[in-house]
């Protein structure tokens, strides 16, 4: 577990100029080193969040998402941007009610309800406005761009994959380039229960730093390799409220990025001490290897 990260005094002053006095600060970062998030409590007991993005790319994606895409979800379904400052990669956000779904010990029926609401929110996000020409070009090239990352991930993972596993990843990357047209839109980019907050008000989505124009099916990869792999009832509930079943091309596309996600997990997880991500990669790769055997 990483040590507590203090909020820089300059950022606290900047936040107080926008929201008034801050009476308490709690480190709300994830365990990985580059995560920097603080819960700020004001004098009236209202909470806001200050986040320093890990990179210019993530800051640009997240600040754009909060301005142009996230409002489509509704007032209580996602944080809203109070202000941002590009030179410090900092965003000041409202809080939404709830706790991460993965921490709540939900029963079978509750998990289905959560997935049903997640499907509806995902549909709103994917349909949040027309893509302009540049975004459409980016979105339509997103599957090929994902395939382009295969060799980088394989190099980083090194001997964590054997020869047959490396070949499987390369084969799936090649297949991904041949996938036919699939629906595109704005995606969350890290759509999974760690970024779903559940409360009596319903479900809310957080953490939009990976939001971008892309093939919509890319928002289902983590769910397909974790939640849906063992619980098809959750997938059914999600897609029912999402509004449609996946097309054959999307089903094919979903399998290919799963292989890329697996090798990315095995490249990133061990290096960052994330056992959960590492296990996800190993499990997905094992399942794909089994399915590909004649």
Automatic annotation (TrEMBL):
<feature type="domain" description="Aminoglycoside phosphotransferase">
    <location>
        <begin position="28"/>
        <end position="247"/>
    </location>
</feature>
<dbReference type="InterPro" id="IPR011009">
    <property type="entry name" value="Kinase-like_dom_sf"/>
</dbReference>
<dbReference type="Pfam" id="PF01636">
    <property type="entry name" value="APH"/>
</dbReference>
<protein>
    <recommendedName>
        <fullName>Aminoglycoside phosphotransferase domain-containing protein</fullName>
    </recommendedName>
</protein>
<dbReference type="InterPro" id="IPR002575">
    <property type="entry name" value="Aminoglycoside_PTrfase"/>
</dbReference>
